[in-house]
Specification:
Strand content: 5-15%
Order of helices and strands: EHHEHEHEHHEEHH
Strand order of the largest sheet: 3-4-2-1-5-6
Number of helices: 8
Shape: globular
Number of strands: 6
């Protein structure tokens, strides 16, 4: 029996975000270099995208590369950027075929020109797709995102475009990289680490968190279904009591 059989299609998370972790450790277990884990992680990405789209999840966001990841060994960063280009090349037609729109958030201007160009091309080619939005968080940091939002609001106040008393949570949300999507309902982190690593600090305020010891290259549709089934057992109160919800 699959965990998919326990999923209620009427109570799906609208937006799932995933911290894809464990590629390096997976590769080490196989006796290979870290990049081998990143190469094998592509299958997990494909499985999760297909699984979410088949169920009817509207938004899927993958934490692919953080601003802190630029500090990794130079050869690993170069290999990751090359892998990103080749993956976009090979997967764009699949996204189009499956009616999935590609999106990206983060300090995208920091990406190498060849990555930026290929990413922009894929985003343009898939912009009219409506089945699901797949967002890649690249050169992303939630602290940087919030800093950018604060700077924008401060500039608007200084220019007279915004009044201080009009600043509220809705305005702040509208200035974030994720302004065009709902906050995640479910966050999944693989590899057994129990932290959110500077990812969507504002957006995760009421997100359900799911941690699994499964390393990302081993994460498949069944693992996804397991996470969603667990999510559907939660009572989401958003500060209210159970009695108020009932």
């Amino acid at each position: 029996m699959s965990f998919k059989d326990n999923i209620n299609k009427e109570q799906l998370p609208k937006h799932i975000a995933i911290i894809m972790d464990g590629n390096g450790r997976w590769a080490k277990q196989q006796g290979n270099a870290r990049i081998f884990g990143h190469l094998n992680a592509i299958k997990a990405v494909r499985d999760v995208c297909e699984g979410c789209a088949e169920l009817g999840v509207e938004y899927l966001t993958l934490y692919a590369f953080s601003t802190e990841n630029w500090n990794r060994p130079k050869m690993e960063v170069i290999a990751l950027m090359d892998l990103l280009v080749s993956t976009i090349n090979t997967e764009t037609e699949t996204l189009i075929k499956n009616n999935i729109r590609l999106n990206a958030i983060g300090r995208l201007a920091d990406l190498p020109e060849k990555v930026s160009a290929k990413l922009s091309e894929a985003i343009e080619k898939t912009k009219n797709n409506t089945r699901m939005t797949l967002t890649l968080a690249l050169s992303y940091s939630s602290k940087v995102e919030l800093t950018d939002a604060i700077k924008q609001i401060a500039a608007d106040v200084e220019s007279g475009k915004t009044k201080v008393e009009s600043i509220d949570s809705q305005l702040i949300s509208s200035c974030l990289y994720t302004s065009n999507m709902p906050d995640p309902d479910l966050l999944i982190r693989t590899s057994g680490e129990l932290r959110i690593s500077n990812f969507m600090l504002w957006q995760l305020a009421y997100t359900e968190l799911y941690f699994t010891s499964t390393l990302w290259p081993d994460f498949d549709k069944e693992e996804l279904y397991k996470a969603i089934a667990d999510y559907q057992q939660r009572e989401r109160r958003f500060g209210k009591t159970s009695e108020q919800l009932n």
